[in-house]
Amino acid sequence: MVYDFADSRSGLHAREFLGSWSGKLVCDDYSGYKALFERGVIEIGCMAHARRKFHDLYANYRSDIAEEALRHFTALYEIEREARERRLDAYARRQLRQQRSKPIAETLRQWLMRQRGQVPDGSATAKAIEYSLGRWAALIRYLEDGDLPIDNNHIENRIRPVATERSLCTS
Known about the structure:
Blueprint: H1 11-18, E1 24-27, H2 34-38, E2 42-45, H3 47-61, H4 64-85, H5 90-116, H6 124-134, H7 136-139, H8 153-170
Parallel strand pairs: 1-2
Helix pairs in contact: 3-4, 3-6, 4-5, 5-6
């Protein structure tokens, strides 16, 4: 895992830092990464970013749709917690994900598609659903590789003090 601090969120910095590297990049939907994906870097979506959209909806509006979505996300995270507690190797983690997480993820996708047809365009709920569905392929790539994390929370939590300090300095 690597973190490189930059004074801006320019996509140019990401491209210059990574150079000709190719591999799997766990990230949010930041547009600065798009050029990397076009040249072969594999996008791994951050499930926490998708989940957070629904968490915010529930926290702010007590949305029933958000509450149900959170149940699905919680089930996926419970499986990851179990894998950590059991100290599964990558092969066993992939097997667990295939057996238990993949069906939950597919149920969530189908449910999100049904819900999207029932909420107004442009609403906060529609935006949360569209974020997940629009990034679905990237969000579920972790299911196919036991070495991949479900999200990038570990690194984000470690860099949060740096990012917070940066925003305070630029305010």
